[in-house]
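F.,

This is the one I mentioned.
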C-alpha cells in the first residue's frame, strides 16, 4: 500500500537531513559510489534496471537496522525508501531516461499518431456510452497526465498517471450513480483512458512508462497503483496499433481523416516556421538598410537648412518589398484559416476556459488561469517585439492591478489541483507544488558531508 505522506516535502527533506547526519556517512558514501559507477557504464536498460532495483533493496534493508531509524514506524522506513529512490533516480535521470534509440523512435511515432488521431476521434469511436461521455471534465484528467514530464522521480511520474486515472474513475462512478446504472468496470474505464491519453498526447509517453517500469521499486508497484498503471500500458498499446477497425470506422473514412489531419498539422507547422523565419529575414534586411551611409539632403524652401535621410519614399501605390505584417494582419489571416477548416471548433477544446462564465470558475482554477496568462503575455511580447512594436505591454487598469495582486495572494494557498473536486483526496495521489522544482533541481538536495 502506498504511503499517504510519501510526497510531502517534509518527508523528502527528512530523508536529506538524515543523510547529512555524521552517522549516515557510510550510506552517503555507498549512494555516491553507486551513482558514479552507474554513470560510467554505457546504457543497457535491463542491466541498469536490475542494478537499481538491487541497490535500492539492499539500502532499504540497511536502513532498517541502522540507529538513524531506531524505533521508527513502518511509514517512516517506507518514506526513507521513497526518499532514496527519488534521490538516486534524480541523479541518474539524464543517463537512463529515453537512453535507447528504439525508445526514442517509439516516442516519436506514438506522439505523431496521437496528434493525428486527436483531430477527428470521438468518444463514440471507442464505444463509450453517452452516459459516460463528459469531455469537459475529462480535460482535468488530461491536465494531470500532461504533467508527467515535469518530474524526474519514478513515483512522481507515476502519480501523474494515478491522478489522471482517479479523475476518470470518479467521473464514471458519478455518472453511473446519476443514471442508476451498474458500477463501471474495466470495459468502461479503459476506453475513456485511451481517449483522454490521445487528447492529452504527452510527449515521450512511451519512455515515461518504461522508466516507471524499470526504476520504480517493484515491491511498491502493487494493488490499485498496479491496476491503473497496467491500464495505462494497455492504452499505450492500443493507441500504437489503432486502425480503422479498432475505432469502429470505415477504412476509407479513416484514411481520409488521417490525410486531412496531416494536412492540418502540416499547415500549422508551415505557418509557425514562416512566422519565425520572416521576422529574422526582415531584421537582416533592416540591418543592411541601416548600414548604408546616410546622406543629408538640403531643403532650400526654408530660411534654414533642414537635414533628413535621403531615402526613397514609396509612392501611394507602392509598398516596401519586405514588409512585416502587423499583428492585426496576422490575426485576420488566422481567422480566415479557421473559417476554412471543417473542424475548427475542436482546436479550441484544449482551452477549457474559453467558453466559461465567471460563475463557472472556482478558486482551484486560478493557478492554471494564471499560468496560461503568463504564457500568453510572454508569447504576445515576443511577437510584438518581433514586429517592431515599441511598447507591447498594455497598461493595467486599477481594477486589473487589484485583481492581479489578489491572484498572486490566492496562488500561495492553492496547493491542491482541481482533481480534488472529483474525489482524489488521498495525498498519495498528490505532489506538492514545489515538488516539481525539487525533482528537477540538483543544487539543494546534496547529501555530502563536509
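My design for it:
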Amino acid at each position: 500500500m502506498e504511503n499517504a505522506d510519501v510526497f510531502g516535502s517534509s518527508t523528502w527533506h527528512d530523508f536529506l537531513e538524515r543523510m547529512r547526519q555524521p552517522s549516515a556517512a557510510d550510506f552517503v558514501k555507498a549512494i555516491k559510489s553507486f551513482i558514479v559507477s552507474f554513470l560510467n557504464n554505457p546504457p543497457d536498460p535491463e542491466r541498469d534496471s536490475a542494478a537499481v532495483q538491487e541497490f535500492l533493496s539492499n539500502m532499504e534493508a540497511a536502513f532498517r537496522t541502522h540507529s538513524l531509524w531506531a524505533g521508527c514506524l513502518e511509514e517512516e522506513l517506507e518514506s526513507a525508501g521513497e526518499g532514496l529512490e527519488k534521490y538516486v533516480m534524480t541523479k541518474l535521470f539524464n543517463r537512463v531516461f529515453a537512453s535507447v534509440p528504439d525508445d526514442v523512435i517509439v516516442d516519436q511515432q506514438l506522439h505523431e499518431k496521437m496528434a493525428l488521431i486527436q483531430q477527428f476521434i470521438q468518444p463514440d469511436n471507442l464505444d463509450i456510452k453517452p452516459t459516460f461521455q463528459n469531455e469537459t471534465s475529462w480535460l482535468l484528467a488530461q491536465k494531470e497526465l500532461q504533467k508527467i514530464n515535469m518530474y524526474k522521480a519514478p513515483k512522481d511520474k507515476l502519480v501523474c498517471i494515478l491522478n489522471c486515472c482517479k479523475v476518470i474513475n470518479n467521473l464514471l462512478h458519478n455518472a453511473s450513480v446519476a443514471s442508476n446504472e451498474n458500477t463501471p468496470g474495466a470495459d468502461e474505464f479503459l476506453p475513456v483512458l485511451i481517449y483522454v491519453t490521445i487528447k492529452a498526447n504527452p510527449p515521450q509517453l512511451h519512455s515515461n512508462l518504461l522508466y516507471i517500469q524499470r526504476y520504480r521499486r517493484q515491491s511498491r508497484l502493487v494493488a490499485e497503483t498496479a491496476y491503473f498503471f497496467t491500464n495505462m500500458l494497455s492504452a499505450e498499446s492500443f493507441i500504437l496499433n489503432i486502425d480503422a477497425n479498432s475505432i469502429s470506422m470505415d477504412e476509407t473514412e479513416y484514411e481520409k481523416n488521417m490525410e486531412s489531419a496531416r494536412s492540418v498539422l502540416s499547415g500549422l507547422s508551415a505557418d509557425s516556421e514562416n512566422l519565425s523565419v520572416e521576422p529574422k529575414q526582415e531584421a537582416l534586411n533592416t540591418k543592411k538598410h541601416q548600414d548604408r551611409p546616410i546622406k543629408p539632403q538640403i531643403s532650400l524652401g526654408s530660411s534654414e537648412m533642414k537635414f533628413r535621410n535621403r531615402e526613397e519614399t514609396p509612392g501611394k501605390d507602392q509598398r516596401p518589398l519586405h514588409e512585416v505584417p502587423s499583428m492585426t494582419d496576422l490575426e485576420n489571416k488566422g481567422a480566415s484559416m479557421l473559417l476554412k477548416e471543417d473542424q475548427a471548433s475542436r482546436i479550441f477544446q484544449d482551452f477549457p476556459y474559453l467558453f466559461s462564465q465567471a460563475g463557472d470558475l472556482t478558486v482551484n482554477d486560478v493557478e492554471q488561469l494564471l499560468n496560461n496568462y503568463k504564457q500568453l503575455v510572454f508569447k504576445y511580447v515576443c511577437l510584438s517585439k518581433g514586429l517592431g512594436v515599441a511598447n507591447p505591454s498594455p497598461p493595467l487598469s486599477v481594477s486589473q492591478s487589484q485583481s492581479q495582486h489578489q491572484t498572486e495572494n490566492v496562488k500561495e494557498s492553492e496547493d491542491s489541483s482541481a482533481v480534488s473536486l472529483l474525489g482524489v483526496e488521498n495525498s498519495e495521489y498528490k505532489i506538492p507544488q514545489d515538488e516539481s522544482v525539487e525533482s528537477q533541481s540538483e543544487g539543494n538536495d546534496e547529501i555530502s558531508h563536509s
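The radius of gyration is 28 Å.

Talk soon.
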